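Lecture notes, unit on protein representations.

Consider one protein chain, 226 amino acids long.
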Amino acid sequence: MSVSKTLGYSVRKLRRSKGLNQTQLAELAGVSLPTVSLIENGKTNATIDVLVAIAEALGTTLPHLMAHQLDTTVPDKQDLKAVLAKNVRVRREYLGLTRREVAERVGMVSYYIADIENRKQLLLLRNLIRIAEALEAQPTWLLSEGSDEKLSVEGGSTYPTTEQIVEQFEAERKRQRLTITNVSSLIGHDSAIWRNMVKSSNVSILVFLKTCNALSLDPEDLMDAC
């Protein structure tokens, strides 16, 4: 990843972790909204003064932003279950919702939410996004250690569909000129898994993360509401 792309990823990830949108960050840093957008997309060579102002607005330093690297580690399945269980429970309790109320919001039975919170379920991506929306949270927050349960998605935000995500996977595979066999090998599955994913848009969280890793894609860009 280029320096500008790495810096943009770091700014975007830290901004989102603090619950800020691009407009709010621009105001805090005293720069224009287009400047923040271009930096996050790795499409500008901003001056040092601008980068320092953005770093300070995010409560960090420029060296820290420059040193940040894209985390491509795919968690172990059991670790992922544990993190998801804790984050769903903590966010649900913070909102003062029962398991039944969350289940009703997403059209599921309450024991399904109980199974998630008891580490018995590792969701399909489709269901993770639905639950995140019911909890007014970003899907990646529910998969991340140390997430702040007080953060809420901005009103009016739109969550992506799994069909849209899978379309982006296919487009990136073709852009990188990878065969289905190649990309399936990279994610550690046979070609049937990829073909089924493209056909049905059914994909587990684990396969989603492995695919992001294999194609060097940021899960936040694909899965989070905007």
